[in-house]
Design a protein that fits this description.
The protein is of the alpha/beta class. It is 42% helix and 19% strand. It has 22 helices and 23 strands. The protein is elongated and about 125 Å long.
């Protein structure tokens, strides 16, 4: 397409403008001089000139239309008499526009698609400007695109035509439509009727049965059946009970879409069941859809249920092929599991794995805290008592653990227990057991490379899982109702070595780990939490001296004060602070600041944002329990659990932009 200004000039328009300027000038001169006869002659000549230009324009337009009608689909585009191969008899809706998108001609089939010709011409203009002209500029090979015209779906095909139309740049565009409405409707019908399959599982079924008895559990089953029938009423879906705590669900994709819009309302409905049960009724729902066959959908149900239960239950997940997993629910406080059988089984499994290994390497998450180190020391003690060499993998210069690391270095027993990630890689062999504690995401582990190629991996964690959790493990113990990983490891140690004695320093590290994750035994504590704390207290733990492992130094304390000073309150219950100019341990500062912001009257959740030098922004979130910050952080690519979560964003956005995204996610959560 030429872009020369002079090639774009419309000569008829130039003539009209030029003659209009002249007539205004002459008219002014004749009227001021009183020459009325020359004035009327000039006016007559002007209108005659305009009439001639209009006549020429319409004659040329008519001539162009006739040429278009006679255009043949031959290779040379030569004009022929109207016949089978001519444009005039083309069997599809057809139109021609100029190089500027101006309407030239259309056949009756094209015109019949519109109620108004003015609307048709505007639509053609829009098609040219939005879809055709840019592709011509880029010399694209395929000009086709889809267009909806009066509720019908068309594939729009185009072709650039040569000089036969006489347009300014020497080309015009032929546009013809292929009706795809039937195919689209068939595809839409096919997609709407695709089968989604899933399972509905009653959480804590055994705990309710053991606590409240058979009569209560039978009453719950009756009430649940009524709620399921009401939930699926009017939808193309069925649910059938498989075993005492499970239902199998089959539904059409359209019905699943409706259920997703309702955000799986059954999750909140079942919590209203009150038939004498002391433990609230919650559900785990896993749905699989859009896989190539029903059998493939069915095979993915187990993965869906595992994903939900590993995040603590009271949730639903939709796993669709080629799409990101969608989670719903998880708005309630996590209730302590009363069933300790699982801890006993895990203890035996970990014992067998340790005995069958050449050595044990244990690590926590990056920037480890006292819970991560306490759990690591517990694994070290378990392996040592079984006669296996164990090492703890830690990067150097960890400010979070400075005080306790100094004490560990004073003891000869731990002289070569703490090793660097590079040294761990050097000594790992095929029989090495790699134990990951207090984290389930490989990329958030202290040494992610240590997991690459490792054949024997065990994971012990208490955080809700994200979608990228460590897979292919020999042991995966994820108990989100636990207060801390140290609590879990204390239980495992007691089952593995009944009557054991734990060295004071290790016991204090585990105790400090429980204190850190429970905010000094205030949040997320249960009977098992206090049982673990009581056991550690019996190992000569000095509860006052333990505070030094979690207390900040003066510089850190001042940085924390600056962060909390910048906080703002949103919706009367959300505290958000954007931290800057932190001079001490950044992760420790923003974590403690987020905790302290919860002390403000009315605040139910707190968020601290900090931008690092590499442009990434970390968000640390804390909650009193009513607001599930893990759900909010998972929407932003992070994880954690109900009362403590975090994410690290590396998309290059400013901290202000990320704050707006965070606020939008918080409000979406609150509104849901």
């Amino acid at each position: 397409m030429k872009n020369n200004f002079f090639d774009k000039l419309n000569m008829m328009l130039v003539n009209v403008i030029f003659s209009s300027v002249l007539i205004v000038g002459f008219s002014y001169y004749f009227l001021t001089k009183g020459l009325f006869v020359p004035f009327f002659v000039a006016i007559s000549v002007y209108f005659l000139f305009i009439a001639i230009n209009l006549a020429v324009y319409f004659i040329k337009k008519k001539h162009l239309e006739e040429k278009v009608k006679k255009l043949s689909f031959g290779t040379k585009w030569k004009a022929v008499s109207p016949g089978e191969s001519a444009v005039y008899n083309f069997g599809l809706p057809l139109a021609f526009v100029s190089d500027s998108g101006t309407f030239i001609w259309s056949n009756e089939l094209f015109e019949s698609l519109y109620d108004d010709k003015k609307e048709m011409r505007q639509d053609l203009k829009d098609m040219f400007v939005l879809h055709i002209a840019p592709k011509i500029e880029l010399l694209a090979e395929d000009f086709s695109f889809e267009q909806t015209i009066n509720d019908k779906q068309f594939l729009v095909k185009t072709a650039v035509v040569g000089q036969i139309t006489g347009s300014r740049d020497g080309f015009s565009v032929m546009i013809y439509l292929i009706d795809k409405s039937y195919e689209k409707n068939i595809k839409r019908l096919y997609e709407s009727q695709r089968m989604a399959v899933g399972e509905l599982v009653i959480d804590s079924y055994e705990e309710i049965y053991q606590t409240n008895g058979e009569i209560v559990i039978n009453s719950i089953n009756v009430e649940l059946s009524k709620i399921i029938d009401k939930w699926l009423k009017g939808k193309k879906a069925v649910a059938r009970k498989m075993v005492r705590d499970r239902y199998f669900i089959v539904m059409e994709y359209d019905s699943l879409q409706e259920i997703m819009k309702e955000k799986f309302s059954i999750l909140s409905d079942v919590k209203k069941i009150n038939v004498g049960n002391s433990i609230p009724v919650t559900l785990s729902i896993g749905i699989s859809v859009l896989w190539d066959s029903v059998s493939e959908n069915e095979a993915n149900i187990a993965k869906a249920i595992e994903a939900v239960t590993s995040r603590g239950g009271d949730q639903a997940v939709v796993m669709a092929k080629g799409q990101r997993d969608e989670f719903y629910g998880a708005g309630n406080v996590e209730f302590e599991s009363l069933n300790e059988v699982k801890a006993r089984v895990v203890s035996n499994q970990l014992k067998d794995l340790i005995l069958d290994s050449s050595k044990v390497l244990v690590m926590g998450h990056a920037f480890p805290d006292m819970d991560s180190l306490g759990a690591s020391l517990a694994v070290y003690r378990a392996a040592t008592l079984l006669g296996k060499r164990a090492r703890i993998v830690l990067k150097e210069n960890n400010e979070n653990l400075k005080v306790i690391m100094n004490e560990l270095k004073l003891s000869k027993e731990y002289e070569d227990v703490i090793i660097t990630p590079s040294y761990a890689l050097a000594i790992r062999d095929e029989k090495t057991l790699v134990v990951v504690v207090d984290v389930s995401d490989a990329q958030r582990a202290e040494a992610p490379r240590l997991l690459e190629g490792a054949e024997r991996i065990a994971v012990i964690d208490h955080h809700r899982r994200g979608s990228s959790y460590i897979r292919d493990t020999l042991l995966d113990y994820n108990e989100v109702t636990a207060s801390s990983t140290s609590e879990l490891m204390v239980e495992i140690l007691q089952y593995m070595h009944p009557g054991l004695s734990v060295p004071k320093l290790e016991a204090e590290a585990m105790y400090a780990g429980i204190l850190v994750d429970t905010k000094n035994l205030v949040f997320k504590t249960g009977r098992r939490t206090f049982a673990a704390a009581a056991f550690l207290r019996g190992q000569n733990v000095d509860t006052v001296a333990v505070r030094k492992y979690t207390q900040p130094d003066l510089n850190t304390f001042l940085d924390i004060a600056n962060v909390t000073k910048n906080s703002k309150i949103y919706d009367n219950k959300i505290a958000i602070s954007k931290a800057s100019q932190i001079n001490s341990n950044t992760d420790l500062v923003i974590s403690i600041a987020a905790d302290q912001m919860l002390n403000v009257l009315g605040v139910e959740a707190s968020f601290v944002l900090y931008r690092f030098d590499d442009g990434s922004v970390k968000i640390t979130a804390r909650s009193l329990g009513e607001i599930n910050v893990q759900v909010i952080m998972s929407k932003m690519g992070g994880g954690g659990h109900l009362t403590a979560a975090a994410t690290n964003i590396k998309d290059g956005n400013s901290i202000d932009t990320i704050e707006k995204i965070l606020i939008d996610n918080i409000r979406a959560y609150l509104n849901s």
